[in-house]
């Protein structure tokens, strides 16, 4: 995709065995690559790569779907190589006294993510298993949570407050703006003519210095900015780079360390708002960058120092959801010394874990002296027991959220209890762990024939002894039921491993039973590949089908029959079946929309809760003080759910561990002499920060709720609303500048 974005003439081809797009949003990305970028997928294992004597190009030989050998030539061959532990891993493990698995990676005890076989030594990232960035960040947070719990009794005993230089008084100085334009590697520099923008910026009013940087967010450039502030007596700083959402705090800290008020800093987003959306028109992108810089300089010239207030933090957490994620998050927060209220809608705790019975065989080692938690029902019982015994946790079952008010550090939530009463809970943070549910199949005779069941139902029947696997001559499993289709265009992540787990369970009880798995792609990623290989060794037959030619299930007297066009040849097969097992996907909780409205957090297009940033903040919302974990985020395995829950917990504890928090500095204010109490600002405010009191003839502002968005300033017909540090006249001036730029 990136190659195509840089050169539309490139023709990319991917040779693959299975596309394993199991992450949140990955399936759509794979589809976009094919349909929007023209990436060609070839399902085949490459036989050889040689050099063409005539052209010198790479000659690739592979087997076509019809079995014939095909040779193609390419200018470039890129190998997607696997990962292995780095050198010295085994020596390090021996010195630390921790166990490694058969591949040489650190192996955690069963259902103990980030732990090792030696208490007090934790692991994060690819040292435990090859993984993507979001999972790495989650696991690092999980390790931090467990370390934090061990150290909770000595929290803050060795900390030192950062000493800032005395803040320079710039109130009597004329604006002296320094502009720093970022190349961002090729993200900006390959589209925008950065030197031209720098030259233009130097001509703008009150700009006394302008330069370009390869990566403005790097540590070296931060030091350069500090030096330039001193050398040129800068009293306003502008960085034109990427989104302020991720990098503004970093630059504000740099400005503050140079003796300036952090709110004398301004950003222009010339990446997301420019180079990324105008990559095919370099001149237009360059012109737009100049306009964005012009507007940002105009705003920077008007900036004023702002003092930040503080407010108290309530040290209680609210956890919404009593499944494995919610219970684990509550326990983790409580283990770190804070009070927790857990609210569960159902009468019983456990959520989806109540329906999981069969463990993965040999899933992780057991820590010395600990009983096995690889059994899902043992894990459930142990977690509920720990929850009930913890004096810091209050559990409310059969309860639902009615209203959520307040703000970060000072939330007030009303809960409807099972007896109809309402209870108000005061807390500082919220963890959303509301889970997800199995998709109800609407095909393959499900609900019409009792021999057609889901994987979840099969597990329960095997465990309860409702079926004797020895009496089953043939079992057919069908993958991607309700997943990767028009209604649910995403991968449910766990289904392939779940099917293989249950296939192995059947084979363990009855090796003579024929088990067939009909699949589109096998997605047993990471170490779960061992179960796929074991299933093949046990005689489980895997048959690929095409998404446009799904299997069909019919009844004929005593037997079920499953017809499928086996790929890649497309040969028709009819499989007799005593039981058909559907790998039903996972869909978000239907009440997610109501919860999202209460918490003022977003959902993605599939209805799962949407994190602030897929890589940098996979457990946070854009709304401060609210965190997410478990299947409310997306489908996950049990160990992944535990890691997410502990990761969300330590993020919550980062807030709870503080006695006071800084208030939002840029907030609205009201000129009582101009306000007519018309109420337009109250209706417009998205944060509920504007109020009208019956006995007060003008609107008022709740400063700790106000986020300084300026919506009330724009809505006010009397220009009675203003912003601290940014006057109403300047906001209208900026709006005029934006309108003029759009008109041009």
- Helicity range: 25-40%
Q: What overall geometry do the principal axes of the alpha carbons give?
A: globular
The average pLDDT is: 92
Number of helices: 20
- The CA-CA distance between the termini, in Å, is 32 Å
Structural description of this entry:
With 744 residues, the protein is α/β, with parallel strands linked by helices. The protein is 29% helix and 22% strand. It contains 20 helices and 33 strands. The strands form 11 sheets. It has a 5-stranded parallel β-sheet with strand order 13-12-11-17-28, with helices on one face. β4 and β5 (69-74) form a beta hairpin. α6 runs parallel beside α10 (282-302), α11 crosses α12 and α14 runs parallel beside α15. It is globular and about 90 Å long. 39% of the residues are buried.
What's this entry about, in short?
With 744 residues, the protein is of the alpha/beta class. It contains 20 helices and 33 strands.
Layout of secondary structure:
Elements: H1 2-6, E1 13-16, H2 26-35, E2 40-43, E3 46-51, E4 58-63, E5 69-74, H3 89-96, H4 133-150, E6 177-182, H5 186-189, H6 194-201, E7 207-213, H7 219-231, E8 236-241, H8 244-257, E9 265-269, H9 271-275, H10 282-302, E10 310-312, E11 316-320, H11 324-335, E12 339-344, H12 376-389, E13 393-397, E14 400-407, E15 410-416, E16 422-427, E17 429-432, E18 436-438, E19 452-454, H13 455-464, E20 474-481, H14 495-509, E21 514-519, H15 529-537, E22 541-544, E23 552-556, E24 559-566, E25 571-577, E26 579-584, E27 586-588, H16 592-599, E28 626-628, H17 638-656, E29 660-662, E30 668-670, H18 680-684, E31 690-691, E32 700-701, H19 711-715, E33 721-723, H20 728-743
Parallel strand pairs: 1-2, 6-7, 6-8, 8-9, 11-12, 11-17, 12-13, 17-28, 19-26, 20-21, 20-26, 21-22
Antiparallel strand pairs: 3-4, 4-5, 10-29, 14-15, 15-16, 18-27, 23-24, 24-25, 30-33, 31-32
């Amino acid at each position: 995709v990136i190659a195509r974005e840089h050169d539309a003439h490139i023709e990319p081809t991917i040779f693959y065995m299975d596309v394993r797009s199991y992450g949140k949003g990955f399936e759509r990305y794979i589809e976009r690559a094919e349909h929007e970028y023209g990436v060609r997928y070839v399902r085949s294992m490459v036989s050889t790569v040689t050099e063409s004597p005539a052209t010198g190009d790479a000659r690739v030989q592979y087997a076509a779907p019809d079995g014939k050998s095909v040779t193609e030539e390419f200018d470039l061959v890129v190998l997607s190589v696997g990962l292995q532990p780095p050198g010295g891993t085994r020596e390090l493990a021996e010195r630390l006294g921790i166990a490694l698995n058969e591949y040489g990676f650190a192996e955690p005890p069963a259902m103990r993510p980030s732990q090792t076989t030696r208490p007090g030594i934790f692991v994060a990232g690819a040292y435990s298993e090859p993984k993507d960035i979001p999972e790495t960040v989650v696991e690092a947070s999980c390790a931090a949570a467990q370390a934090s719990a061990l150290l909770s009794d000595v929290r803050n005993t060795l900390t030192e407050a950062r000493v800032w230089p005395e803040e320079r008084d710039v109130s009597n100085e004329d604006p002296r703006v320094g502009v720093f334009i970022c190349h961002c590697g090729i993200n900006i520099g390959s589209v925008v003519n950065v030197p031209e923008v720098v030259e233009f910026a130097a001509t703008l009013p009150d700009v006394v210095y302008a330069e370009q940087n390869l990566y403005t967010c790097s540590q070296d450039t931060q030091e350069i900015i500090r030096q330039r502030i001193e050398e040129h007596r800068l009293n306003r700083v502008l960085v034109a780079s990427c989104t302020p959402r991720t990098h503004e705090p970093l630059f504000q800290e740099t400005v503050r360390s140079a003796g300036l008020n952090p709110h004398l800093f301004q950003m222009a987003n010339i990446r997301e708002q420019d180079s990324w959306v105008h990559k095919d028109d370099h001149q237009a992108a360059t012109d737009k960058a100049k306009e964005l810089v012009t507007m940002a300089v105009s705003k920077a010239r008007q900036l004023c120092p702002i003092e930040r207030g503080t407010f108290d933090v309530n040290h209680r957490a609210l956890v919404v959801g009593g499944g494995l994620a919610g219970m684990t998050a509550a326990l983790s927060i409580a283990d770190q010394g804070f009070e927790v209220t857990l609210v569960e809608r159902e009468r019983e705790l456990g959520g989806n874990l109540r329906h999981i019975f069969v463990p993965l065989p040999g899933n992780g080692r057991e820590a010395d002296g600990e009983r096995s938690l690889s059994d899902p029902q043992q894990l459930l019982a142990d977690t509920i027991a720990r929850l009930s015994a913890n004096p810091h946790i209050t559990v409310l079952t059969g309860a639902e959220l009615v209203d959520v008010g307040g703000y970060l550090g000072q939330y007030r939530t009303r809960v409807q209890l099972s007896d109809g009463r309402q209870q108000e809970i005061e807390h500082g943070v919220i963890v959303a762990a509301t889970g997800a549910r199995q998709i109800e199949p609407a095909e393959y005779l499900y609900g019409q024939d009792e021999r057609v069941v889901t994987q979840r139902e099969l597990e329960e029947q095997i465990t309860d002894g409702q079926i004797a696997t020895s009496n089953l001559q043939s079992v057919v499993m069908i993958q991607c039921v309700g997943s990767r289709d028009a209604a649910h265009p995403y991968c449910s992540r766990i289904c392939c491993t779940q099917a293989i787990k249950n296939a192995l369970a059947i084979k363990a009880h009855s090796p003579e039973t024929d088990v067939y798995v009909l699949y589109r792609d096998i997605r047993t990623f990471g170490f779960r590949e061992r179960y796929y290989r074991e299933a093949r060794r046990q005689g489980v037959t895997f048959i690929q089908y095409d998404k446009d030619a799904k299997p069909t299930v019919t009844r004929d007297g005593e037997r079920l029959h499953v017809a499928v066009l086996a790929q890649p040849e497309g040969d028709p097969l009819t499989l007799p079946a005593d039981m058909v097992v559907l790998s039903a996907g996972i869909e978000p909780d239907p009440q997610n929309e109501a919860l999202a409205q209460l918490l003022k957090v977003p959902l993605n297009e599939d209805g799962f809760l949407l994190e602030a940033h897929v890589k940098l903040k996979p457990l946070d919302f854009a709304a401060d003080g609210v965190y997410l974990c478990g299947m409310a985020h997306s489908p996950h395995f049990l160990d992944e759910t535990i890691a997410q829950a502990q990761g969300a917990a330590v993020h919550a504890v980062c807030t709870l561990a503080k006695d006071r928090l800084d208030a939002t500095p840029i907030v609205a204010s009201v000129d009582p002499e101009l306000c007519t109490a018309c109420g337009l600002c109250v209706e417009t405010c998205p944060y509920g920060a504007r109020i009208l009191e019956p006995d007060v003839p003008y609107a008022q502002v709740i400063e700790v709720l106000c986020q300084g968005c300026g919506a009330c300033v724009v809505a006010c017909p009397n220009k009675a609303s203003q912003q601290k540090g940014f006057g109403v006249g300047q906001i209208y001036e900026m709006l005029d500048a934006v309108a003029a730029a759009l008109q041009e």
